[in-house]
Write a structure and sequence with these properties.
Layout: H1 2-21, E1 24-33, H2 41-44, E2 46-56, E3 59-65, H3 66-70, E4 77-88, E5 90-96, H4 110-123, H5 128-144, E6 147-153, H6 158-171, E7 174-178, E8 180-181, H7 194-208, E9 215-220, H8 228-240, E10 245-250, H9 254-263, H10 270-276, E11 284-288, H11 294-303, E12 306-309, H12 311-316, H13 324-329, E13 333-336, H14 348-361, H15 368-373, H16 377-382, E14 400-403, H17 409-415, H18 421-431, E15 437-442, E16 445-449
Helix pairs in contact: 5-6, 6-7, 7-8, 14-18
The structure holds guanine and zinc ion (ZN).
Residues 96, 110, 114, 118, 221-222, 249, 252, 313, 339, 342 line the site of guanine (GUN).
Amino acid sequence: MHCIRLWAVVFCFQFRLRLLVIKHQIFRAGIVHFSQSTTDPDKDVKCYSDGALVIAHDKIVALGPYKETATDYPNAQYHDHRGRWIIPGLIDSHLHYPQTEMIACYGKQLLHWLETYTFPTEKKFAEDAYSRKIASTFLRQLLKNGTTTGLVFSSVHASATDILFDAASEQNMAIIAGKVCMDRNCPPWLQDTAESAQRESASLIDKWHGKGRNLYGLTPRFAPTSTQAQMSALGELAQQYPDVFIQTHLSENMDEIEWVKSLYPDTDGYLDVYDKYHMVRPRAVFGHCIHLTDHEWQRLGESGATAAFCPTSNLFLGSGLFNLDKARAVEANLALASDVGAGTSFNMFRTYGEGYKIAQLQQQTFSALQGLYMMTQGPASAYNMENAIGNLNPGTMADFVVLSPEFDELSALRLADTASAQDMLFALSMLGDDRAIHQTWVAGKCLYNQTEVI
Ligand code: GUN
Ligand code: ZN
């Protein structure tokens, strides 16, 4: 008994000592997040109208109602964000960094747009100085919009991929990226080979996967631009590195689907091409998935792979309407994604807003909390990364966003009497943009502060 009391005294003393020695910061605001994976985000959301988030160094150490939490941290540096909201750093699950400069280029549909704008632009990434310039603009755009993690397509150049990882490392951002692989059906100056794609991808994995916060994604652009030999070479890597990501495009456009049928006559549909080469598995993220058959949805759902819903891109290229209900029926992992530069905004709330309209056109429901889940905890848990990103649980990295939902006269009028996170998020998605992002914090550092931008 005596021993237990002594131990308790020592423990308390150590705890108090740690509070004095470690530099804590406490943020007071409304707080909304999902503490765990769920199929019902509307029910399982965690919300504090007067909340406290406490961080130390690069991690979150406490979260709760302000009054209860603050007493444990009397010496913490205080950030008063009352009237604002804190949410986890956002995850954009599919976008292209070389396409930053060609966002919003007038086009026809996918294949014409690729040939007219995408391939000529991606050629410029053979030059390091150019890649450096765009990589830093790209990361600034992410931060300005509250995105702290992206699944990013580079160009075909390994050097451009190194440059992106270098730039992300300087900011300590959790970026998942990969060199695009394509050895046919694109201009010769953008082509690699089966052998060079395998060699360069393997060497980028060794260099970047798990280095700091970086992770690697094998990136066959899409089935039409890879020969079977290249798919087979990348499939070998997928087997060799089971925790590496795989990112590609799937069933985006009807002409593309017909093209895949003719290029891969021995497979049972588009998804089956990737399946044949061991690429349908957890941490595989398929952009678009608009025109999947029921059989393909079934396979995607059971595989642990993720479907990335890219609403602004799908509307912009006239690709079609993503069927949320089909995805839900097979309990597929779902993530939201901007798909910049076919996507027309880096802003994930805007992205959700267009997704809501796509759901409306099909008489389907898509709440703002479901949207928030698909850009935070949903993908984090699908990627087995929920101990590091996607939520505000103590122990995760201090990646978070401070929102100013009342950023102008109209939003202030609309939100004057709003107490609910759901309503605030929805209004923000319809009316807002980067003006509603007050600050973006990455690994405990404020990397974007709207009031300091010139
Ligand atoms: N399919 C193959 N490449 C691309 C691309 O860069 N963007 C989109 N939206 N679809 C693709
Ligand atoms: Zn894409």
